[in-house]
Known about the structure:
- By secondary structure, the chain is α+β, with helices and mostly antiparallel strands.
- The protein has one domain (about 15-50, about 75-155).
- It contains 4 helices and 4 strands; from the N terminus they run H-H-E-E-H-E-E-H.
- The protein has a two-stranded antiparallel ribbon with strand order 1-2. The chain has a two-stranded antiparallel sheet with strand order 3-4.
- The longest helix has 24 residues, at about 20-45.
- It is elongated and about 60 Å long.
Amino acid sequence: MDDLYVLEDWLGGLLSQLSPAERRRAAIDVGRELRRSQQKRIVQQRNPDGTAYEPRKARQFMRNARLREKAGRIKRKAMFAKLRTARFMKVEADSSGVSVGFAGRVARLARVHQEGQTAEVTRGGPSHTYPVRQLLGFTEADQEMIRDKLLEHLARSA
């Protein structure tokens, strides 16, 4: 995270020479690429540091009864399939910066997993403390991509 501040100090003066419209275009490009990289990482079920997400807990049914379960087959859906779509993961950009985050009601769900909070499993149902699964975060590759995109915009405008 400190590397981003170093990057901001390094490129800040050069970016301030661009027009506000050009800075906004650069921010949108960076934001879109950042969203793509976050989506890929969520598909891979990885935290920004490269560790795997803690897997879901198996559903517990009534005392030893396995209801409608196929024998000999484990089928688990990927976590956050809808959450990682562009419909919910929004990019907001202006001439002063860019942000990638979750919009609407899913923002609370994302925050619960990002920070490992306690929340109700279903409305009015039992509460559960979810493990930390970092949906958003910077990897080394993300930081390099941000630097490269900004340098590309500076080279085009010069």
